[in-house]
Amino acid sequence: MTAFNQYLQQTRRQFFSKSALSLAPISVAALLQQNRAGAEMPTRSGPLPAREPNFPARAKSVIFLSMIGGPSQLDLFDPKPELIRREGEPLPESLLKNAQFAQIQEKQPKLMGSRWKFARHGESGATISELLPHTASVVDHLSIVKTIETDDTNHMFAELMMNTGWRQFGRPSLGSWVGYGLGSESQDLPAFLVLSSGMRPRSKGANYSNGFLPSKYQGTPLRSSGDPILNVASPAGFSRNRQQQSIETINALNRVRLEQTGDDEIAARIASYELAYRMQTAAPELLDIEGETAETMALYGINDTSQPSFGRNCLLARRLVERGVRFVQVFHGDWDHHSNIAAGLPSQCKLTDQPAAALIQDLARRGLLDDTLVIWGGELGRSPVAQKGKNPNDPFGRDHHIEAFTMWFAGGGVKPGQTIGKTDDLGYLATEDSWHIYDMQATILHLLGLDHTQLTYQYQGRDFRLTDVHGEVKTELFA
Question: Are 332 and 351 in contact (CB under 8 A)?
Answer without folding.
Answer: yes
